[in-house]
Amino acid sequence: MPALAVDRPIEKRVTKVDGRTEEVWPLPLDRDWLFAMFSELFDDHWDKLTWGPLIPGAAYELKCPGKPEKITLSKLGYFTVHWGAKGHFHLCLGAGPAMAPEDAIKRSPARVELVRRLDADEMPISWSIRMFNGAGDPQISIYLPNPFLRPEDRIADEPDWDRLTLWDDLFPRLTGQPTDGRDRMGKGYVKTTTN
């Protein structure tokens, strides 16, 4: 996946319903560029990703069952990651000419973003990529390795800053900017106990 030729500043800072802030960097909508990015993520980093649709009322946080057997892009513009008997998924990266124009507008990506979520102290606490279609519906969220979570998705006692390696690699290539040094300044999640 090529680095972007132009610096792309933070498009926006968004305050969510829970009061947390997100920093958002827009990414290209070009189908070939998206295919290269998603292929690299799922082919080279499949074992580090948590992914799925995050929709109102549901969050699917899935792990890949193994290295994909095949990654393709169909003539209709659908990116497919296939694990053989362990399943597959399709993601529209830009409708091909055989699709009806109204379907193409609704199904194709309208917004792809690199996202850094901040904690209450405005320090980074999670790192992700997400994509929305032309109807504004979420298509996929990909959560990058998080230093505050152990690989088995439990809160870490101490941050593992090595888990930011993928973010450190992707951020300058996707935004054309160096990282700002804030990613290792957060304190992480608060552990809670239940009876």
What does this structure look like?
Pfam families: DUF7676. This protein has 195 residues and is an alpha+beta fold. The protein has one domain: Heme iron utilization protein-like fold. 16% of the residues lie in helices and 29% in strands. It is built from three helices and eleven strands. The strands form three sheets. A six-stranded antiparallel sheet has the order 1-2-9-10-11-3. Strand 10 and strand 11 form a beta hairpin. The protein is globular. The termini are far apart. The model has no long low-confidence stretch (mean pLDDT 90).
Architecture, according to CATH?
A: 3-Layer(aba) Sandwich
- What average pLDDT do the residues reach? 90
CA-atom Rg in angstroms = 17 Å
Q: Which H/E pattern describes the elements? A: EEHEEEEEEHEEEH
Low-confidence stretches: none
InterPro entries: DUF7676
Pfam families: DUF7676
Give keywords:
3 helices; 6-stranded antiparallel sheet; 11 strands; 195 residues; globular; DUF7676; Heme iron utilization protein-like fold; alpha+beta; 3-stranded antiparallel sheet
What can be said about this structure in brief?
With 195 residues, the protein is an alpha+beta fold.
